[in-house]
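U., I forgot to send this yesterday:
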Amino acid sequence: MTVLTLLAAACGGGGGDGGSTAQIETGSSGNAAAETVIAGEFMSTRPGAGIAAARGNPQVVQGENPCDSSATSEPIRIAYMGADLASLDDAGLESLIIEEPGRVIEAYVNEVNFHGGIGGRCVEFHSYLWDLGNATESITEVCVQLPQQNVLFSFVLRADTNLLNCVTTAAQVPTIGLYASAPSATFEAAGGRFYADDGSTEYLLTSSVDIALQTGLLDMSEPVGLLHGAADQATDPSTIEQTLRSSGLNLVSSAISPASNLGVLVAEKQVRLLESGLSEPEQAEAEMKLAALPPEVAAQLELVEAFFLDAAEKFKDSEVTAVVTTADWSDVRRFMRAAELVGWTPIWIINDIQPATLTLTEAPERQAGNLVSVSARRAAGDAIPELDRSCMSLRNTASDAPTFSHRHHTDAWSLLQATCDYLDVTFSAMTRAAQADGTLTRESFMAAMHQTSYDTEYGTLITFGEDNPYGWDRFRVLEADPACVLNHWGCMRSTTDWLAPTG
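Result:
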């Protein structure tokens, strides 16, 4: 299982103990029907405003009283799947400060239920968390448990191939990816049931190149290198390269990242793999730690190191001045470190496959200053729309939730807002699909998802269609600002307006 599969950015679940899967039902409003709902009040809530903005039908939610979970009608069940965020530090991802998306999902569900549910039916929320330290066993538990609940759809953070295979493809559960990308073959295998905010790795790559050309970051004569992700080996890397060349790009060199896993990520931090500027004592300590590793781990680290140093020399010799990529964030950072060691400083053009926080953590400062991201995400310096503010307020109503204490445009803030965006998308689809009595099927839900056209307040456009399972339709160029004090490493700032790919 690759590092990207295991996590990669904004990544996972909430509580849960050990390797077991936590199942949490928070969506029902119980017998709170004694409190009357004021007509029209739902439109003043975050779900009401968001559903309306996403072109849903809020009237389907409006009822005179909260829905009654003891009623004879079956609840509408939805789910969330993600890694247990409590184990991020143990996985060497302590720089990633985010919180479990289930909190705001729970709060959104509860607000909808308080105002009558969907056509009078309560929405019931189930959360399934898996353990980074025991991924295989705990993901298997999710694969067994979630399909038994007959959920209408499930959210997933990132895009774990094993979860998609068992839940989306085998159990045919429509799945909405948050911060999610995967090779186009994964979308094809899901049979139209996987909807991802980011999209396929190929779409994100070609879109980043398109926007870079539109904005002058690249020109057709500039020698460009492509760092493939390890997942590209499952398809035909030459097809991706031919697509870039057919757009007129001067692609002069490429390399395919080797497969790695979470153990390599943790071990490379211990031995400070590919880091530059180490003192003699630091270098000696790193060598001692390398010698203490299990032989198979040490051998894999040596292969990873050799690959990226060789690739950096190859790209440098080819006079590459800009790098585009489908690789995992960890591989991009390794390549940046190798580039520093061989004295090569290209422009790094990443996209939403690679979370900037993780890519730039402990990256060489000179290389970090040359990094840009073609992204659909919020950025430092953006105005805060009202829907974003009310999303945070809604999240604070979740049961046992501490007050949201993270600054605007940190990772925690951005993931929270992205979750609200896609709650708006999915619940607006539910209101379009629901019959008068609240009847919903997966087929009617998917048909309504294909009608999605959500012009968000912060600037991007979210659309889905029968032949379009990728959410983001507009992008900006964000520039790394290591001097910014928003995150411990800096921040990303927008340098362009919102742009749509021309292809």
